[in-house]
Description:
It holds the Pfam family NTP_transf_3. This protein is of the alpha/beta class.
Amino acid sequence: MQAINHKDITAVILAGGQGRRMGGEDKGLIEFDGRPIIEILIEKLKRQKVEIIINANRNHDIYQSYGLPVVSDELADFQGPLAGFATAINAVKTDYILTLPCDGPFLADSFVDLFIEAQAREQSPISVAFDGERLQPVYALIDVNRLDSLNQFLES
């Protein structure tokens, strides 16, 4: 496995959920510090020099207004983040996707670099964030060649 860099990665902002824990609100559009969280994430990711797409299943017009590709889950009924992963893999032209939820405005300025370093160190097709206590699986760097196994899991 060879080392990857920023041009090999598309960041996928996961905004495809129903927002059940937020009373049905679209979490990416909730304001934080006077702006929708999605705007904060887009700004931080653009500074990190990666392609960006948004995975959303509603409010498409609003998300498209940011000038980025917006993809909807191919599986019906809000199947969760893994459905967003699969949809994103089908939509990108890069070798990796780097996923993150739409409701985490405190994204590190080194977010992309940390995953690149982890992949170089571990030589793994999937890297998942760990906060010191538990895995944070929606923050993940995933080799797009894992699509078949992901689809098999989703079908089961």
